[in-house]
Design a protein that fits this description.
nine-stranded antiparallel β-sheet
Length: 244
């Protein structure tokens, strides 16, 4: 079975068109979650105070760094002020949106995947009615070539995690707990919070378990159909192992 992937760029009035047009070195990558959007804003050029103020007005700044490599900012904002019609049009024409949307030099760049080339053509004709649009590429892809990003929406991976579990996971990640060797310990992590070590550990373990359970569905899809067995789990001649 073949699918069709189309990449195109368009111009219309949106909150980020003018800012990306005024600052040609700026790149904005946009991800939609269930009730908000996350933006990664980067530029190799040194930012002006005016640009930094504009970025702060976009939403809540989650991360900001300015060094010799340039500017890198991550923000989060509500979806309520954004036009949602373009995503609805993708769905109406049976086209699957592939995040992120990339804003650069006044253009919005999108990629969609469809099961029928006619759906892609119909979508492009629809968008041409009220937007300045340019088709960048349209290619057929095999079923085996479907990108894994199609399988795992980001918000689904964190489904059912509580705010405390997410906070525990984020703290552990930022402090290097998952690095090799570990950059911190559970005792040190808990000392940075207002809860007991046992309580912090419980939040972290539950977050890890839920995250792996959610990712497991997509992991099985990614590995389905492969004949590889890199760990030798199917070997019948391995020696009996005793539990520690």
């Amino acid at each position: 079975m073949s699918l069709y992937e189309a990449s195109f760029r368009l111009k219309h009035e949106c909150p980020y068109r003018k800012i990306s047009e005024r600052y040609p070195d700026l790149t904005i990558r946009e991800w939609y979650l269930s009730d908000c959007q996350v933006l990664e804003i980067s530029s190799a050029a040194a930012p002006t105070d005016e640009l930094l103020e504009e970025i702060k007005r976009i939403g809540t700044v989650l991360h900001e760094s300015i060094d010799d490599s340039g500017l890198h900012v991550v923000t989060q904002s509500c979806l309520c002020s954004l036009e949602g019609s373009i995503l609805e049009r993708f769905e109406a024409h049976n086209c699957l949106y592939q995040p992120p949307t990339i804003h650069r030099q006044g253009w919005e760049h999108y990629t969609v995947v469809a099961f029928d080339e006619a759906d892609v053509k119909a979508l492009l004709r629809d968008l041409e009615t009220d937007r300045d649009i340019e088709l960048l590429s349209k290619t057929a892809i095999t079923e085996q070539g479907i990108p894994h990003s199609m399988l795992a929406p980001v918000d689904r991976l964190f489904e059912d995690l509580t705010d405390r579990q997410l906070a525990a996971l984020q703290l552990a990640l930022e402090r290097g707990y998952y690095e090799q060797p570990r950059g911190t310990s559970l005792r040190e992590l808990a000392s940075e919070t207002s809860v007991a070590r046992s309580t912090y550990e419980e939040h972290l373990r539950k977050a890890e378990n839920k995250l792996m359970a959610n990712a497991g569905t997509y992991l099985r899809l990614v590995t389905t159909g492969t004949d590889r067995d890199p760990l030798g789990t199917d070997r019948t001649d391995r020696p009996e192992q005793r539990a520690d």
